[in-house]
Amino acid sequence: MNEEILNGLADAVIAGDVEKAEKCAKDSISADMDAYTSIMEGCAKGMNVVSKKYECGETYVPEILCSAEAMNAAMDILKPHLKADATAVPKKIVLGVTKGDVHEIGKNLVKLMLEAAGFKVIDLGKDVPTEKFVAAVKEEDADICALSALMTTSMIFMPDVIREVKRVKPSIVTMVGGGPLSAATAETYGADGYAKDASVAVKVAKDLVRSV
Length: 212
What we know:
By secondary structure, this protein is an alpha/beta fold.
């Protein structure tokens, strides 16, 4: 039954079916399923499929927007049921797409997943210059600076951002992600972590804040 509900959530997101997404989310609450599991194994699983199709040119922005609407509808129902540690102070993550890149669908998905996991996300949006990342890290006293890029022409700015945010806050941890990157590239750039997709980003972020 639980697996059926999770698959239903994923299928609803892939199809951009708001009504089905809401029904599956409500069914998961009625079945006393863990809300975080429903988000990660249902909603995020479906959105990851959509993101990969978009990167491969198999789907387009209008379909992505419909999928995001379905996911948000389910998330609105599930979020109030997330179990949170009342004694924990949410870790802050400054998140943005690097200079010259306007592709933020993947970044938006990462934001949703991180918020669902209890992080406080400061979303800088797309085409973000180095100085804006630096200012946000300093102003927010962030724990993590997360950078996204889908273009090789914009990922080259990542080493500059990493170097500069560490200069203003040596204890900051950095993570990168996006289509053209790899774990080896991330290491070369000096990043502390690399995530190949949104669901992995949550685990990487949690591991990073535990290590500092």
